[in-house]
Amino acid sequence: MLRIGIDIGGTFTDVIAWRSNDGNSRTMSLKVPSTPPNYADGFRNGVDQMLDSIGFHDDEEITVVHGTTVSTNTVIERSAPPIALLTTAGFRDILNLQRLRLKQPTDFFNQRTVPLVPRNLVFEIEERLMSDGTARRPLDLEEVRAVARKARDGGATGIAIAFYHSYRNPSHELAAREAAREELGGDFEVSISSEIWPQIGEYERAIVAVLNAFVKPKMQTYIADIEHYLSKRLPKARLFITRSNGGAMAASEARQFPVQTLLSGPASGVSAALSVSERLNGGQYLTFDMGGTSTDVSLIRDSRATISSSAEVGDFPLSMPVTEIEAIGAGGGSIVSLDGRVLRVGPRSAGARPGPACFGHGGTEPTVSDAYLLCGYLDPDYFLGGKMKLDVAAAEGAFSGLSAAMGQDGVRCAEAALTVATSNMVARVLPYLARHGADPEDVTLVVYGGAGSLHGPLLAAEMGIRRVLIPPTPSVFCASGGLVAKLIHDLAMTVQGLDIDANTLAARFGELEAEARRWLLQQIEAHQLVSVDIDRYAEMRYRGQSFQLQVTVGADDLSGGSLKGLVDAFHDEHQRLYTHSDREAEVELLQIRVRISGSLAAPGIEQGGRADQAAVAKGSRPIQIGGQSLEAAVYDRSVLTEEATVAGPAIIEQVDTTILIPPKFTASVNGFGDLILIRE
């Protein structure tokens, strides 16, 4: 059995493989440069190199799980062909009206986001459903066919349909889709909102349908390209695509609902961290994913990832369950600049090309990675295990302008840049933890990504985080999320008020669960599943609130024909998050949701390795940290055995990354190969 995880980032494409034969297992990883804008080339290069290294058998069971940013980039860059929107008469301007909110509360000149669909391609249909799902005005299919022709003649290559109250009754949207396909041909792509995420909120539901239709052409082409390659290279391989809720789905599903892949890359890293928390028996973990262009964090509590009912992609609301990801700052390729007399890091990035100056690809502006090199954290001759040489002179040249302007040498400028980057991160992480009722001293920081093992410990030192965990392959950790990813699907049903009785609510949950099981068996055959779990959730709020909370519905919350257990669970969650609750206030139920998780064969918990208290350094070098130059011992992680200890300041090197041990931290290896940093 062979399972391969591939994650494509802006700078590198990460590949990790796990093979299990006759009780023996082996994991191997590698990195290859990403190939924008043709990311499929990087996919092929990475898989080819991996297969050349480990080989494969024609009769071997192979699963490929891929995380891609194609859909996200398409939205951010607005690089898709035109699409049209069909909506209920009277709602033509829904994409322009949007919601009343300001990104910056004090910026009254803020411009609204330009819709993905121009107004001339938004068409009104004379139909109307009421809030209970009954039809006030029937759908005219001839009108739909005529409008579909207008959309095509106007240049639209796809259609999104979002009718009012279709979350209650999808019949009008289903009939309109069928009529449009009959008129324009079965290959003409039509996305309907009720099929993607049937929730209350006409604007958010319309945006989900528009996003799906907008990214579909590029995602279908991309997936077809990959499937064609795999059909030649690995004919029996099954391809799954990661999704934004932290799980994965069959490639055929991703073709039809590519909106589910938005934000899937960062979510894969959280999935991998979730598997770490499960084998370490729970607790609170703050993930820290620092790559080439940005840094993301997410909170895991008691072996459960934080799930949000909404997110943003390119300034558009994505109102569906997603793994909550908070972007907090710069990446390794973020550019350092001087704004007047103020040193700034980001938001501009050197990207994959030209990249940081030290990469030797023509970059001339100073970046965070150049700062790491000048501060001594990176060995110019051992980057990526020696496969790539770093240019110290180029890094010094990149910082020379800042050095002259600040009146300091390049090393001190580099340290100042790292201090600014860290301070910016702290300013974002502390409020994030506060919103979730978490104390920095109580969380374990799980660091990964190409730059995470260098900057994560700096963040921990600044914030007072006492424990840092660095997995065995941190720079390909998001790809390893593909190795442990489960097949996950969310289903929702709008149920307003609390006038519904517990037995009826339980029956509604049962309907969603039955549909979820049918979905799972469409993705994979039953005998290939290791286990299946189903979770129930309810979206609730106090009457008058403009936001709702997600409450886990336990087995006993609907027992005895009463909703009291569910209401009490809501009060408890409100108390935990906001330190207050009102048990006398009226509570509203807005939506129920079911999540199904199907586990496939994946890397298990591997313990072992001889214990050895001694750790022998392979050398030392000076590093700039804390405003002073210190001599740091350098260790090879591959020879550190279980319980070996390393006191900071120190550097630990491995093939895929470099790890910084700051002063007052001590590192040791646990039984799973994780490196644990403990603050004194």
From TrEMBL:
Family matches, as SUPFAM superfamilies: Actin-like ATPase domain
One family name in Pfam for this protein: Hydantoinase_A
Hydantoinase A/oxoprolinase domain boundaries: 205-490
Cellular component terms per the entry's GO annotation: cytosol
InterPro entries: ACX-like_C, ATPase_NBD, Hydant_A_N, Hydantoinase_A, Oxoprolinase-like
GO molecular function, one term: 5-oxoprolinase (ATP-hydrolyzing) activity
The Hydantoinase/oxoprolinase N-terminal domain, residue ranges: 3-183
Protein name (record): N-methylhydantoinase A
Native species: Xaviernesmea oryzae
